[in-house]
TrEMBL record:
Pfam families: MFS_1. CDD domains: MFS_MMR_MDR_like. This is Putative transmembrane efflux protein. NCBIfam families: efflux_EmrB. The chain crosses the membrane at residues 58-78, 85-105, 111-132, 144-168, 174-193, 205-225, 237-254, 274-297, 309-327, 339-358, 410-428, 481-500. It comes from the Bacteria. It is found in: Cell membrane. PANTHER family: EXPORT PROTEIN, MAJOR FACILITATOR SUPERFAMILY MULTIDRUG TRANSPORTER MFSC. One of its GO terms (cellular component) is plasma membrane. Residues 20-507 form the Major facilitator superfamily (MFS) profile domain. The keyword Membrane applies. It is a multi-pass membrane protein. InterPro entries: EmrB-like, MFS, MFS_dom, MFS_trans_sf, Sugar_transporter_CS.
Length: 519
C-alpha cells in the first residue's frame, strides 16, 4: 500500500535534485558561454563603436578585473547573508548588465556595463558552487559536480561557434541580449527551487580583508594584463606589482587576526586541500589558456576564419562535457580523487607535448591527437578539482571554498596567459633577432609585435623580400608556440607530481567507499 507513495516521493526528490542542479550549473554555463561569445564578437564591437585595439581590450579587461576582485569576497558574502540571496542578486545584476551591454551606445558605457557584469558573475558563481556543495553529499555530490563539469564544458565548447553565428546573423549586441531571457528564466526557477542556507557561525563581514584582497588582486590582474603591452620594466607595471605584494601581505596579517576570516588560511595546512587548489590552478594554466592561444594559432598560423577555428577546436572541447559523465558512471567508483586529478593533469601534460612536437609543421591534422588527449585530461579535471577541494572543507564554509576555487581558476587563467605570452614573445624575438641581426631595433620590435599578435600576412620591412619575410614570420610564430607549449607541459608535469604527493587518497576515496565511510 505504501509503495506508490514511496515511489512518488522518490520521483519528487529526484525532480527537485535535477532542478537544483540546473539552478546551480546554468549560471556557470552562462559565464563560460558569455566569455567565449564576447571574445569572438570583439572585431564587430570595434567597428560598430569606432574603437581602436587598446580601447576594445578593456571590454574584456573590465570584466576580468571586476570578476577577479570580487570572487573571494562574494564567497564570504554567500556564507554570511545566504547563498540563495547572493545567487539571486548576482544573477539579477549579471542579467541587467547584459542588457546594458547590448544597449551601449559608446565604448565607455560598454566598459562600465562589463565591469558591472563581472561583479554579478562573481556573486553568482561563488553562490552557485556553495549551494551545490551544501545541497549534495557523498555519492550524490560526486555526481552533482560531474554534472556541473559537463555543463561548463558545453559552455566552453559551444561558445566560439555560437558566438560566430550570433554575431554574423544578428549583430554583436545579441551576444549580450542572449543572457537576458536565460537569466530571467533562471531567476524564476531559483526563487522557487533553491532553499536558503548560510554559515551559522558567520560574523560581520571582514571589510579589511575584502579591501586588501580585492585591491591586491585588482592591481596584480591589471599588471599582468598590461605587462606584455607596456613592458615589464615600465614603472607603472612595477608599482602595480609592488603594491599588490604589499596588499597581499597585509591581507594575510588581517586574516590571521580575524575570528572568522574571509579566507581561513589554516585549511591550506591540509595537504589534500593544497593539492586540489594546485590542480585547479594547473587546470587553468594547462587548459583554459589554450582556449585562447590555440584558436589564435589556428587563425593566424593556418589562416582559418574565426568560425572555422571554433569548429576545429571541437576535438579538444567536446571531451570537456563527455568525460565528466564517464567519470561519474564508471571511474569515480573505482579511482580515488587523487588518482583522477593526477591522471587528468598527466594527460593534459602529454597532450601539450604533442602540440609542441608538431607546432612547427603549421598544419591542423597533426594537432588533433594532442587536442583529444588534452580535452580528455581536462574533462577528468573540470569538476573533480572543485569536488576534491570541497571534500575537506566543512559544508558551512562552502561559500569560502567556492570563492577560493573560482579565484584560483581565474588567477591561473590570467597568470597563465601573461606568463606564456612572455614565453611566446621572447622566443619570437630570439628567432627574428637571429635571422635579422642588422635591422634597426625599433623596426625589429614592431615586426616581433606584429608576429606575436598573429598579423603574419601584413608584415613588411624595407629592403627585405616579402616572401622571405613571410616565411620568417610563419617560422618564428610556430617556434614561439612550440616554446609556449613546452613551457606549459613542463609546468603541468611539476603540478602532476605535486598533486600526487599532496592529495591523500584516504581523504578522497572512490565514491562508493566514501559513502560507506560516511555511514
Amino acid at each position: 500500500m505504501n509503495r506508490p507513495v514511496l515511489a512518488a516521493s522518490e520521483v519528487s526528490t529526484k525532480r527537485h535534485e535535477w532542478l537544483v542542479l540546473i539552478c546551480t550549473s546554468a549560471p556557470s554555463f552562462m559565464l563560460q558561454l558569455d566569455a567565449n561569445i564576447v571574445s569572438v564578437s570583439l572585431p564587430s564591437i570595434a567597428r560598430s563603436l569606432n574603437a581602436n585595439f587598446d580601447g576594445i581590450e578593456w571590454v574584456i579587461t573590465a570584466y576580468m578585473l571586476s570578476f577577479a576582485s570580487l570572487l573571494m569576497p562574494a564567497g564570504a558574502l554567500a556564507d554570511r547573508f545566504g547563498r540563495k540571496r547572493l545567487l539571486v542578486i548576482g544573477l539579477s545584476l549579471f542579467t541587467l548588465a547584459s542588457l546594458l551591454c547590448g544597449l551601449a551606445w559608446s565604448l565607455p558605457v560598454l566598459i562600465a556595463a562589463r565591469a558591472l557584469q563581472g561583479a554579478g558573475a562573481a556573486m553568482q558563481l561563488s553562490a552557485a558552487l556553495a549551494t551545490l556543495s551544501h545541497a549534495f553529499h557523498g555519492e550524490a555530490r560526486a555526481r552533482a559536480f560531474a554534472f556541473w563539469g559537463t555543463v561548463v564544458g558545453i559552455g566552453i565548447a559551444s561558445g566560439p561557434v555560437v558566438g560566430g553565428i550570433i554575431t554574423q546573423a544578428f549583430g554583436w549586441e545579441w551576444a549580450f541580449y542572449v543572457n537576458v531571457p536565460i537569466g530571467a528564466a533562471l531567476l524564476f526557477l531559483i526563487l522557487r527551487v533553491i532553499q536558503s542556507s548560510h554559515d551559522p557561525n558567520a560574523m560581520r563581514l571582514d571589510l579589511p580583508g575584502v579591501a586588501c584582497f580585492s585591491s591586491a588582486l585588482f592591481l596584480i590582474t591589471l599588471a599582468l594584463i598590461e605587462g606584455n603591452r607596456r613592458g615589464w620594466s615600465d614603472r607603472w607595471i612595477a608599482s602595480e606589482l609592488v603594491g599588490a605584494l604589499i596588499l597581499f601581505a597585509l591581507f594575510i596579517i588581517v586574516e590571521r587576526r580575524q575570528a572568522r576570516p574571509m579566507l581561513d588560511l589554516s585549511y591550506f595546512r591540509k595537504p589534500t586541500y593544497l593539492g586540489a587548489t594546485l590542480a585547479q590552478f594547473a587546470f587553468s594554466v594547462g587548459l583554459l589558456t589554450m582556449l585562447t592561444f590555440v584558436p589564435i594559432f589556428l587563425q593566424s598560423g593556418l589562416g582559418e576564419s574565426s568560425a572555422t577555428a571554433g569548429l576545429m577546436m571541437l576535438p579538444m572541447v567536446v571531451p570537456l562535457f563527455v568525460v565528466p559523465r564517464v567519470v561519474s558512471r564508471h571511474l569515480a567508483h573505482r579511482l580515488s580523487g587523487r588518482a583522477l586529478l593526477t591522471l587528468g593533469l598527466l594527460l593534459v601534460c602529454i597532450g601539450l607535448c604533442f602540440f609542441a612536437a608538431v607546432a612547427t609543421m603549421v598544419e591542423y591534422w597533426p594537432l588533433v591527437a594532442g587536442m583529444l588527449v588534452v580535452g580528455t585530461g581536462a574533462g577528468l579535471l573540470n569538476g573533480e578539482t572543485t569536488k576534491v577541494g570541497m571534500t575537506v572543507i566543512p559544508k558551512e564554509r562552502s561559500g569560502m571554498a567556492s570563492g577560493v576555487s573560482g579565484t584560483t581558476r581565474f588567477t591561473g587563467l590570467v597568470i597563465g596567459i601573461a606568463a606564456l605570452g612572455v614565453v611566446l614573445y621572447a622566443r619570437i624575438h630570439g628567432i627574428v633577432a637571429q635571422a635579422l641581426p642588422s635591422i634597426d631595433a625599433a623596426a625589429r620590435l614592431r615586426l616581433v609585435q606584429d608576429i606575436t599578435a598573429g598579423r603574419l600576412a601584413s608584415v613588411a620591412l624595407p629592403g627585405i623580400d616579402a616572401a622571405t619575410l613571410h616565411t620568417l614570420a610563419v617560422n618564428s610564430f610556430a617556434g614561439g608556440y612550440q616554446a609556449l607549449f613546452l613551457c606549459a607541459a613542463a609546468f603541468m608535469a611539476v603540478a602532476t607530481w605535486l598533486t600526487w604527493k599532496l592529495v591523500n587518497p584516504a581523504e578522497t576515496p572512490p565514491i562508493g567507499i566514501a559513502a560507506g565511510q560516511s555511514k
